[in-house]
Specification:
This protein has helices at residues 3-22, 25-32, 36-50, 66-90, 106-123, 175-181, 229-237, 247-255, 288-306; strands spanning 55-57, 62-64, 98-104, 127-133, 147-152, 160-167, 169-173, 195-196, 206-211, 214-219, 242-246, 260-262, 267-269, 274-280. A hairpin with a 2-residue loop joins strand 9 (206-211) and strand 10 (214-219). The relative contact order is 0.15. The strands form 4 sheets. A 5-stranded mixed beta sheet has the order 4-3-5-14-6, with helices on one face. It is an alpha+beta fold and 307 residues long. Pfam families: HTH_1, LysR_substrate. Residues 1-65 form the HTH lysR-type domain.
């Protein structure tokens, strides 16, 4: 294939990578800012040029063919190389500047990142921060992100992962609720209590506990569930029931006596806890703005976790 034909295929290669990583033509079209039919035409054009099927299309989804998987791996390397080229051009000598795109979970953004973001902006006045707040993992390649924060024990293998500290899950209730309903002394006692949980996924009401080698799984229930940590905390403060939170959400409320910790001797395993991991694409040429952000957040968050 001559250079002119290859150059013409680069946008289609980028579209193909986005479709594979997004999981559907519709999701890819949203990321690329074009119509699903437009994305479909790009994939068809690439398949015609390569004389092979890359995707098996059904009414609901598409599956990458064996050949498509190989083409995807090479296409991804092309996109990563293009990103390196852009980074070379955007590397600044000395002062960090330009746009930085970051994604992070909602509660973590509100309670931990927000003040650090504002301090970073003050420290680096020529950097523009674009924060995408989402509790779902956001693909950095498809959304053109520089940094992704996640609470997890299993960082993404295709990203550089920098652990920044451990977040524990905490059970809390108001003093009035515990006085009226009794204090749980074992996780199984929670079956007799009104428990507040996230209710985003089917197993969010399944709480796992362990202590001294004893593992307990409890399927809790309650009259009120909400996927907003501050609303859930307000309900707990009002005496509605026992709630589960990342420790940074309830730190102040515990310190001021608005809530009391429940089952403090038990370790809680849930989606509310894990390593704070800062993840970013591997790159030989990192822009100064990204390096400055990584260094600043690493120092700030590791310092907080050690306090």
């Amino acid at each position: 294939m001559d250079t002119n034909k290859l150059m013409a295929l680069l946008p289609d290669i980028a579209a193909f990578v986005t479709v594979v990583e997004a999981g559907s033509f519709t999701a890819a079209s949203q990321r690329l800012g074009v119509t699903p039919s437009g994305v479909s035409r790009q994939i068809s054009r690439l398949e015609a040029a390569l004389n092979t099927d890359l995707l098996e299309r059904t009414t609901r989804k598409q599956v990458t063919t064996d050949t498509g998987k190989v083409v995807y791996e090479f296409s991804k390397k092309i996109m990563e190389s293009a990103s390196d080229i852009a980074n070379i051009a955007s590397q600044e000598v000395g002062e960090a500047q330009g746009e930085l795109r970051v994604s992070a979970p909602k509660a973590f953004s509100r309670h931990i990142l927000e003040p650090l973001m504002l301090s970073f902006l003050e420290l680096y006045p020529k950097v523009k921060l674009r924060l995408l707040v989402s509790d779902e993992f956001v693909d950095p390649f498809g959304h053109n992100l520089d940094i992704v924060f996640e609470l997890t024990h299993f960082p993404r293998e295709n990203l550089v992962a920098k652990p920044l500290g451990e977040i524990k899950a905490v059970l809390c209730a108001s003093k009035s609720y515990l006085q009226e309903n009794g204090i749980p002394f074992h996780p199984n006692n929670l079956l007799n209590h009104n428990c507040l949980f996230l209710n985003e996924q089917p197993n969010d009401n399944v709480w796992l506990f362990n202590k001294d080698g004893e593992n307990v799984k409890v399927q809790v229930d309650g009259r009120y569930s909400v996927n907003h940590s501050e609303m859930r905390l307000n309900a707990v403060k009002s005496g509605v029931g026992i709630g589960i939170f990342p420790e940074f959400v309830v730190e102040k409320a515990l310190r001021e006596g608005d809530v009391l910790q429940v089952l403090p001797e038990w370790h809680v395993n849930s989606r509310y806890q894990g390593e704070i991991v800062m993840q970013f694409p591997q790159s030989k040429f990192m822009p100064a703005r990204r390096r400055a952000f990584i260094d600043y957040m690493s120092a700030s968050l590791q310092m907080e976790s050690s306090l």
